[in-house]
Design goal:
By secondary structure, the protein is α/β, with parallel strands linked by helices. The protein contains 13 helices and eleven strands. Helices cover 36% and strands 19% of the residues. The longest helix has 21 residues. A nine-stranded mixed β-sheet has the order 3-2-4-7-1-8-11-10-9, with helices on both faces. This is Acetyl-CoA acetyltransferase.
Length: 390
């Protein structure tokens, strides 16, 4: 039977808005990850048959075939093609799934799935705002779409609040969840839990050149009082910037191969991809779809949630992983064990391969077998990927 293997999975440490990674051009930071995968695996660069790169805001420096430009900025030969994809926050998780499908089919043997987002330089929604300012149409949703769902727009912020209200999560519960994310992330940093997955990259600091190795967003002194003091995003709501993911700069990547490539290049895999699932549901509540996607993925894989040793559920907003835990009956102790996007940041198009790097290395460190990753995405879509540590 055909198999898809992950040979290595790496990421940069996250950079805060206008922080240490903000001087990097997206092409170049993505190229660092591509080069890092070559260095760590020792594979012949010419053996790479494709690069699939996730990026959400494809404007400005992230426009015009970003994936291809990253290849040209890297040590990969110019003969390596690339494509840039947008499945919103799941863009690079979808890159993993496309890469896996390619090697499973035998169409290709060696593919890099990756992602990058420099939100300091290309802010969220900047491409939409630019088009509006330039008079390029009426926006991303036609009247037909908006009329179908009887809404003036689709909003992930409103969707997150709807999830909190529907599943009965209070502001206090979400703030407590956010605090735990920071606590777990701080403990992981102090224990060196991220060392195996982080690719150090050079940055300039007030003290001179340095290597960026530690996620900037982690608040080692986080307190419930400080989190509780942050204003809600809308009057009467319970979602705040403190119980939602942080804006983040970063890049990440995964090398995916089939058994033919393992033997041909003498590679040792970290994990086998066990299941690929993507589903879609209500685009208004939007971020709730990981619940259904997880149920379907487990059913297709012939597994139960009890079989899964660790889960990475993207912390776009605290209401999302809380609703996921409640709906699928998962163990909170296995969820985002090294903290999540509330503490570590959410570099949009890079988050899918970023979470996969964290999941695989955490499974190895803890001796777990199965890991599950899921991501809520704009438009009511969700990806689930299940891997088996080898």
């Amino acid at each position: 039977m055909a198999e898809a293997y992950i040979v290595d999975a790496i990421r940069t440490a996250g950079g805060r808005r206008n922080g240490k990674l903000s001087t990097w051009h997206p092409n170049d930071l993505a190229a660092e990850v591509l080069n890092g995968l070559l260095d760590r695996t020792g594979i012949d660069p010419a053996a790479v048959e494709d690069v699939i790169m996730g990026c959400v805001t494809q404007g400005g420096e992230q426009s015009t075939a970003l994936g291809r430009n990253a290849v040209l900025a890297s040590r990969l030969p110019q003969t390596v093609p690339a494509v840039t994809i947008d499945r919103q926050c799941g863009s690079s998780q979808q890159a993993i799934q496309f890469a896996a499908q390619a090697v499973l089919s035998g169409t290709q043997d060696v593919v890099i799935a990756s992602g990058v987002e420099i939100m300091s330089r290309v802010p969220m929604y900047s491409s939409v705002n630019l088009y509006a300012q330039a008079g390029m149409g009426t926006g991303p949703w036609s009247k037909r779409v908006l009329d179908r769902y009887s809404v003036p727009e689709f909003s992930q912020f409103k969707g997150a609040q709807m999830i909190a209200d529907k599943h009965g999560f209070s502001r206090a519960q979400m703030d407590e969840y956010a605090l735990e994310s920071h606590r777990r992330a701080a403990a992981a940093v102090e224990a060196g839990a991220f060392d195996a997955e982080i690719l150090p990259v050079p940055v300039d600091t007030p003290d001179g050149p340095a290597l960026h190795r530690i996620d900037e967003g982690v608040r080692f002194d986080a307190s419930i009082e400080a989190i509780g003091s942050v204003k809600t995003l809308e009057e009467g709501g319970s979602i705040t910037a403190a119980n939602a993911s942080q804006i983040c700069d970063g890049a990440s990547g995964v090398l995916i191969v089939n058994e033919k490539a393992l033997k041909a290049h003498g590679l040792t895999p970290l994990a086998r991809i066990h299941n690929l699932t993507v589903t879609a549901g209500d685009p208004v509540i939007m971020l709730e779809e990981p619940l259904e996607a997880t149920r379907r993925a487990l059913s297709r894989a012939g597994l139960t949630i009890g079989d899964i040793d660790l889960y990475e559920v993207n912390e776009a907003f605290a209401s999302v992983p809380l609703a996921w835990l409640k709906a699928v009956g998962a163990d909170p102790a296995k969820l985002n064990v090294n903290g999540g996007a509330i503490a570590l940041g959410h570099p949009l198009g890079a988050s899918g391969t970023k979470l996969m790097a964290t999941l695989i290395h955490a499974l190895r460190a803890r001796g777990g077998r199965y890991g599950l990753q899921t991501m809520c995405e704009g438009g009511g879509v969700a990806n689930v990927t299940i891997v088996e540590r080898l």
